[in-house]
Structure formats: C-alpha cells, structure tokens
Design goal:
Protein name: Peptidoglycan-binding protein
Shape: elongated
Largest sheet: 8 strands, antiparallel
Helix content: 10-25%
Distance between the termini: 58 Å
CATH class of the largest domain: Mainly Beta
Number of domains: 2
InterPro entries: CIS_tube_prot_N (IPR045361)
Strand content: 35-45%
Number of strands: 12
CATH architecture of the largest domain: Beta Barrel
Radius of gyration: 24 Å
Order of helices and strands: EEEEEHEEEEEHEHHE
Number of helices: 4
CATH topology of the largest domain: Elongation Factor Tu (Ef-tu), domain 3
C-alpha cells in the first residue's frame, strides 16, 4: 500500500512547487484511517442583522467569497520497532522531521513553508499550510521516552496571488482584482476590461506604484481596486 507523503514546497509569485530530497519529504509509516476535506463559501446578508431592509421578511444572501479548502487527519507515530517502516527511527525524530517540513518558520519565505500532500487519487497534490498540530503521547519506555504518539493535523489550502486571480476571474468593479499581465496587455486595455472606463489607468498606475505603465512586463501582478 502506498504511503502518504508530506513534501516541503517552494513558493513563487505564480506557483507552488514540491522540493526534492529526503530532507524535504515526510513519509508516514502508518497511513491515516480517515481524512476530512472541508469546503466553504461566504455570503453577505446571510443573517437577520446583515443587509435586511425594514419591512422585508428576510435578507437576500449574496455571494461574497470562497473560503480556502481545509484538510485534516490523524497520524500514529510508532517507535517500538513493531512497525517495520519505522524501525530504527524514534518518535521524537519523526515529529521533528514533520515539524521542520511543515511547521518551522522559514527565514527565506518569512513564514512556514507550504507543503504538498499526496495519498491516493482523491488526496493527490493538495498544496496547503499547516494551521494546527496536536500531539498526544500514548506509550513510553521505563525512562519516559515516548514510544508512540497520535498527531492531529489540519491544513489550509495554499494559493499564490496569481492562482487566486486566475481562479476567481471575477468581473465585478466593486471588488479588488489581482490580474496577471499577459503579452500585449496595456493598462488602459485592462481598465476597460475591468471598469469599462479607460480613464482609470492613471489611478491604477499610482495604486501599483508603476514608474512606467506604458511598458507592462508579462507575468507581473497588478491590483485593481474598487472604483466608482
């Protein structure tokens, strides 16, 4: 049976990529018995005290945003030697490796690294960030060294700004847009596309601190704020 892997990733403005090398990959010795995936959406005016006009029986919910996907599962770590794949590796060593990959602060990224989780077809290439890690030590040797531990892990979906912009593809001028510049794009053209108003290009240039808005570089990420 294939084992679940949790791989450290590098992050650029446009993509998240798994890193190679044994030090960047945590492989479970005992696969989780189950896992949970959570999806959510936010709606404005969904409660009685939000957006309800006087005289109306109930507010009309309006879509606000999609929430990042969450994945959670439990892992069992064994250091008794009973599990062949874990033989020769202590529980502490297994925990430290997982913490180093998914939890430790990265001075280069200024945040913990994103990871990629792979297990089977349904949980393949899920890229996320660890938001919660709980450890219960359940078995010890006579000296108090932990021989078995149960871990609860929760991850939130990791996306780059470029990925968010491409997935959203939202045309509303009342929302902030993040647009990845393509070959041939100009600021007036993008303003026409988003605001239906070419004249907004100077305001957008100032908002993005552009020194030369006439020469946009492909793959640059630009923010288009709400404008009236």
């Amino acid at each position: 049976m294939s084992k679940m892997t949790i791989t450290r990733c590098s992050t650029s403005t446009s993509q998240i990529s798994p890193m190679s090398g044994d030090g960047n990959v945590f492989t479970t010795t005992i696969n989780p018995s189950s896992y949970n995936r959570k999806y959510g959406t936010k709606f404005s005016g969904a409660s009685a005290d939000q957006g309800a006009a006087i005289g109306k029986p109930a507010p009309v919910p309006k879509f606000s945003a999609s929430e990042p996907e969450e994945v959670s599962f439990d892992l069992t770590l064994d250091g008794t030697g009973v599990v062949p794949d874990a033989a020769g590796t202590t529980v502490a060593e297994q925990i430290n490796k997982l913490r180093d990959i998914a939890y430790a602060y990265s001075g280069e990224e200024h945040e913990p690294d994103a990871v990629q989780i792979d297990w089977g077809d349904e949980l393949k290439a899920f890229q996320g960030r660890l938001t919660s890690l709980e450890i219960d030590y359940t078995l010890f040797d006579p000296d108090g060294v932990p021989l078995r531990a149960a871990m609860k892990l929760k991850f939130i979906e990791a996306l780059t700004e470029a990925q968010v912009a491409l997935e959203a593809n939202n045309q509303s001028p009342d929302l902030t847009h993040i647009v990845q510049v393509r070959e041939g794009d100009t600021l007036p053209l993008l303003c026409e596309r988003i605001y239906k108003d070419v004249s907004k290009y100077l305001e957008v240039a100032r908002f993005n601190d552009l020194d030369n808005f006439r020469n946009l570089k492909p793959d640059t990420l630009l923010r288009f704020p709400p404008m009236r």
